[in-house]
Amino acid sequence: MSECLVVLVGVCTFASLSLGQIKPPRTWHQVMKDFDLAFHDAHQASQLYGHYLLVGAENDYMWINDHTIYLPSGWHHDSDTYVRYHGLTPVGRLSFSNDRLEETKTVVFQVGGGTYDWR
Predict the structure, then answer these.
(1) What letter would DSSP give residue 9?
(2) How far apart are CA 30 and CA 106, in angstroms?
(3) Cα–Cα distance between 117 and 108 in angstroms, integer?
(4) Domain boundaries, the chain
(5) What is the distance between the terminal CA atoms of the chain, rounded to a whole angstrom?
(6) Which residues pair with 106 in a beta bridge?
(7) What pLDDT is recorded for position 113?
(8) How far is 35 from 105, CA to CA, in rounded Å?
(9) pLDDT tens by residue, 2-30
(10) What is the pTM of this model?
(11) pLDDT tens-digit profile of 71-85?
(12) What contacts 26, CB < 8 A, 6 or more positions away?
């Protein structure tokens, strides 16, 4: 009887640890929120310290300086691209696609204001 109890406790512990590691799928809402926070921090540092701000994308993630933001499942960036700017003069865009859904998302960096727009 005690052996069964020990095995049962072990199985329950393993199951609870395994289930605790399962994460819900990422959404574009989360990506945009993470991007907004990282972009704001990097843009402020760029203005304060005069450093270039680098934004890029590769395969299934994008990055802002040293902050990585993973895309939702099935989304990708076709070619390695980065946008580099200093202070208030950003130029460029990054596009992401999902072949199965036949959808595209694009972040466009606007000249003059250090802002961006998701389309």
Answers:
(1) H
(2) 15
(3) 5
(4) 26-118
(5) 62
(6) 95
(7) 58
(8) 13
(9) 565 455 555 555 555 555 556 678 899 99
(10) 0.71
(11) 999 999 877 676 766
(12) 70, 71, 72, 73
50, two tokens: 């005069």
The amino acid sitting at 21 is Q
**What does the DSSP assignment read for 24-87?**
PPP-HHHHHHHHHHHHHHHHHHHHHH--EEEEEEEETEEEETTEEEEPPTT-BEEEEEEEEEET
Record the tokens describing residue 30, joined without a space. 């989360």
Q: Which of 39, 31, 27 is nearest to 116 (CA)?
A: 39
Q: What are phi and psi of 34, to 5 degrees?
A: -60, -40
- Kindly state the tokens that stand for 16: 């609870």
Q: Which tokens hold the place of 41?
A: 């921090």
